[in-house]
Amino acid sequence: MDKVTESRMAIAMARQGGVGVLHRNLSVEDQANQVDLVKRSESGMVTDPITIHPEATLGEADALCAKFRISGVPVTDGDKKLLGIVTNRDMAFETDRSRQVREVMTPMPLVTGHVGISGVEAMELLRRHKIEKLPLVDDAGSLKGLITVKDFVKAEQYPHAAKDAEGRLIVGAAVGASPEALERAQALAEAGVDFLVVDTSHGHSGNALSWMAKIKSSVGVDVIGGNVATRDGAQALIDAGVDGIKVGVGPGSICTTRVVAGIGVPQVTAIYEASLAARAAGVPLIGDGGLQYSGDIGKALAAGADTVMLGSLLAGCEESPASFSSSTASSSSRTAAWARWAPCSPGARAGRTRRTATSRPTSPPTTSWCPRASRARCPTAARWPTCCTSSSAVCARPWAMWAPRPSRRWSPRAASSGSRRPASRRATRTTSR
């Protein structure tokens, strides 16, 4: 789903015990960079920390900190020898952003730790010296890792976070079923992605199955295949070697697959049928789409799904990579515009024709857009830590996750005339799929 999950949403979901799947309507480099951002957001120890050269400018250091959302960067030479560290405090009062980092950094000797230091020892050094970052160096003084106090704080704040063996947040990424998918999959694997999702609307086809097998054999990470809606489809994915199966052809809130292709199976039936093959093979099953009400998730799990994939339920959250817009609708509910786009060629985001979920386009679709494009509305919600606990995220609609404040302009007279509408409900979030 475009404009639902990028790095911010993936980080927020992993901290709550879920997993985010980065959409594939990004360039290979951008998607790999999103994986890197998630992996660097938290870790027991950063084994490959971001560094900067002493001759770089403060402007470059500031941009680096902003990109990775960090408060400081170790300064190293060409041989990775630690020379010092530059932090936001060093740069806060510098007006000349062209000055070199070496002029304002805190130089060696710094408080450092040895390679293999325990978490207890690292925390004691951070506490004793009242510092936030602990560089790890070897006997030659080369930087080998970095431990930050933020990681200890986050571990206490989010005890149920989904993390890998190295203490980093888990993240997945979507790829297609085409020659470009192999290059994308390899780049994502190098960036540290934990699993790949072969993203196709009809996974029970020769082309899709062929590419799933190729991706699985060429990349050393788990591969989830989909989407299917029958027992035979699930068995075909199992035979192709996938590690997980995604079920759902057309149940999504704005999906038009059933309308365009004329195929599809009711979601509970599809999950049950697919589970007959998945359980026998020990392959986990994911219910994807059609989860609009609190009971839908329970039905999916009862029918045989091991977990579910959410889209519109999360599209209105602040962490989704979408822009806010103002709504002039007369409805009293707080809503968000959610456009689902399906570009057929690079650069198609400058396209023209749209199709809404309630009406046909006023002009024939242009070649820039696939017929799956649609438009719908979803409610906005607060930030993940505020509105979505591990239970509310899967058991409540987003409009049940926030408490709007009445407009200061409201008066009893306005209410009696039927014009009451909290001003806070006018904000909308535009997202794409």
UniProtKB/TrEMBL annotation:
Comp. bias intervals (Basic residues): 422-433
PROSITE patterns: CBS, IMP_DH_GMP_RED
GO MF annotation terms: IMP dehydrogenase activity; metal ion binding
Superkingdom: Bacteria
Biased composition, class Low complexity, residue ranges: 358-368, 412-421
Cofactor entry: K(+)
Region (Disordered): 344-372, 405-433
One Gene Ontology biological process: purine ribonucleoside salvage
SMART domains per record: CBS, IMPDH
Chain ranges of the CBS domain: 45-101, 105-162
Catalytic activity: IMP + NAD(+) + H2O = XMP + NADH + H(+)
SUPFAM superfamilies associated with the record: CBS-domain pair (SSF54631), Inosine monophosphate dehydrogenase (IMPDH) (SSF51412)
Spans through the membrane: none
Keywords, sorted A to Z: CBS domain, GMP biosynthesis, Metal-binding, NAD, Oxidoreductase, Potassium, Purine biosynthesis, Purine salvage
Similarity comment text for this entry: Belongs to the IMPDH/GMPR family.
Descriptive protein name: CBS domain-containing protein
